[in-house]
């Protein structure tokens, strides 16, 4: 922790914003339990809230299942040492919970819509939760005290600043984005977009800039301190559909953006478009690009579509290294932070797959969920992977 604090002091934008269990079931409970069961498409009985999605996994490879959620789990995050997780659901609740046994440390109540955004700050002493209606709340990990609450328009994304642990950013359906010091609610900055939804964003590793993507296919690189647009990707250079996902590489030299038009753009930090790749099925207008991710150890970019098209591109030559057809739609991809050449893929069939980015081969797959994996996160210092599913559960898997 001391090292993190030193890091924050040296690199932050200044938090002043920037100024500078086995359960015995009695006979009389059986009738009530029957109401929780339904039939899947094949007529098999599945229990709602546990296996409510119609997928019947042959095995469960997870080491833990967290079952406190009453609705589909839409968002999740795990801390760096793999001890705590946070997850948000469709029933307007989020929970901070212990990864070792799945017990809830505290509930994040007060939301009035689905909790679609959650995350730990850089010091991992605060957690943020945000719902679709734009209610943003920040909680102290130590005791569950709510220290910040703010209402914006319908929320699309929520991100902690990578260097300043008290600084939080959010993007809305109205197109405006915001930045606060959560310990000083009066300190606020606004980034006014083109009056169109700001669907995705990422912050440069220097902490001074952010790239944001909009529904007209355009992107803007913002200076966070002065709220000024540094460069824009518009017109012919822009996507022809909504920007759904954005990522900046670990040295800040390149940006990748994915769109509902099935394309991905590789852009340098000055806003020059270096390549435009067709990643989706051109004959299917619904094959949108859902996730993009840069590899740290190799000059590789992975892109994934909702129909299961997984591509790995060489960013230095802009050629495709591997094309992988996944037997499922894809919700999210993420390179492993420890074994950096391995790529994790969240499947809409409830399976978490891992590929070796060097040769494009399937390394392993993990089953257990009974419905779509909607989100997942990897602990940066351990081999633990947290998944969130439409089956109303979170699971912990070990990667090896």
What structural keywords apply?
400 residues; mainly beta; Methylamine Dehydrogenase, Chain H; four-stranded antiparallel beta sheet; 2 helices; 34 strands; globular; disordered N terminus
Structure report:
- With 400 residues, the chain is mainly beta.
- The strands form 9 sheets. A 4-stranded antiparallel beta sheet has the order 3-34-33-32, with no helix packed on it. It has a 4-stranded antiparallel beta sheet with strand order 4-5-6-7, with no helix packed on it.
- The chain is built from 2 helices and 34 strands.
- The model is unreliable at 1-12 and 19-52 (pLDDT under 50).
- The longest helix has 10 residues, at 2-11.
- The protein has one domain (2-20, 63-398): Methylamine Dehydrogenase, Chain H, CATH 2.130.10.10.
The helix-and-strand class reads: mainly beta
DSSP E strands, number: 34
Tell me, rounded to a whole number, the average pLDDT. 89
**SS strand fraction:** over 45%
CATH architecture: 7 Propeller
How many helix segments? 2
Count of folded domains: 1
Terminal residue distance = 27 Å
Q: What helical percentage do the residues reach?
A: under 10%
The gist of it:
The protein has 400 residues and is mainly β. Helix content is 4%, strand content 48%. It contains two helices and 34 strands.
SSE map:
Blueprint lengths: L1 H10 L18 H5 L2 E3 L5 E3 L16 E3 L6 E6 L5 E6 L4 E5 L5 E5 L6 E6 L5 E6 L3 E6 L5 E6 L3 E6 L6 E6 L4 E5 L2 E8 L6 E6 L5 E6 L4 E5 L4 E6 L9 E6 L5 E6 L3 E6 L4 E6 L10 E6 L5 E6 L3 E6 L4 E7 L4 E6 L6 E6 L4 E5 L4 E6 L6 E6 L5 E6 L4 E5 L2
Antiparallel strand pairs: 1-2, 3-34, 4-5, 5-6, 6-7, 8-9, 9-10, 10-11, 12-13, 13-14, 14-15, 16-17, 17-18, 18-19, 20-21, 21-22, 22-23, 24-25, 25-26, 26-27, 28-29, 29-30, 30-31, 32-33, 33-34
């Amino acid at each position: 922790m001391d090292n993190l604090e030193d890091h924050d002091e040296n690199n932050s934008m200044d938090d002043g914003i920037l100024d500078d269990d086995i359960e015995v079931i009695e006979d009389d409970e059986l009738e009530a339990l029957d109401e929780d069961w339904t039939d899947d498409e094949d007529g098999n009985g599945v229990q709602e809230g546990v296996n409510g999605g119609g997928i019947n996994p042959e095995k469960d490879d997870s080491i833990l299942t967290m079952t406190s959620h009453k609705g589909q789990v839409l968002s999740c995050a795990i801390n760096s040492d793999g001890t705590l997780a946070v997850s948000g659901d469709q029933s307007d609740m989020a929970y901070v919970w212990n990864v070792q046994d799945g017990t809830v440390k505290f509930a994040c109540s007060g939301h009035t819509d689905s909790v679609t955004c959650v995350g730990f700050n850089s010091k991992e002493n605060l957690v943020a939760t945000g719902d679709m209606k734009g209610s943003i709340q920040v909680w102290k990990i130590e005791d569950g005290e709510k220290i910040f609450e703010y209402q914006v328009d319908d929320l699309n994304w929520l991100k902690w600043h990578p260097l300043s642990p008290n600084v939080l950013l959010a993007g809305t359906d109205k197109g405006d984005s915001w930045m606060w010091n959560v310990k000083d609610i009066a300190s606020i900055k606004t980034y006014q977009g083109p009056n169109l939804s700001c669907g995705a964003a990422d912050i440069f590793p220097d902490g001074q800039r952010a790239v944001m993507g909009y529904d007209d296919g355009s992107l803007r690189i913002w200076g966070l301190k002065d709220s000024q647009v540094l460069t824009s990707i518009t017109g012919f250079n822009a996507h022809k559909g909504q920007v759904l996902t954005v990522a900046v590489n670990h040295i800040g030299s390149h940006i990748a953006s994915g769109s509902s038009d099935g394309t991905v753009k590789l852009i340098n930090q000055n806003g020059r478009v270096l390549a435009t790749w067709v990643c989706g099925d051109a004959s299917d207008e619904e094959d949108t690009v859902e996730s993009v991710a840069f590899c740290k150890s190799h000059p590789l970019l992975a892109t994934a579509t909702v129909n299961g098209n997984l591509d790995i591109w060489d960013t230095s030559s802009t050629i495709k290294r591997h094309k992988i057809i996944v037997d499922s739609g894809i919700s999210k991809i993420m390179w492993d932070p420890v074994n950096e050449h391995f790529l994790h893929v969240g499947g809409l069939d409830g399976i978490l797959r891992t590929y070796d980015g060097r040769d494009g081969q399937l390394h392993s797959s993990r089953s257990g969920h009974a419905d779509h994996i909607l989100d997942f996160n990897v602990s940066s210092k351990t081999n633990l992977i947290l998944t969130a599913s439409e089956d109303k559960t979170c699971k912990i898997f070990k990667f090896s």
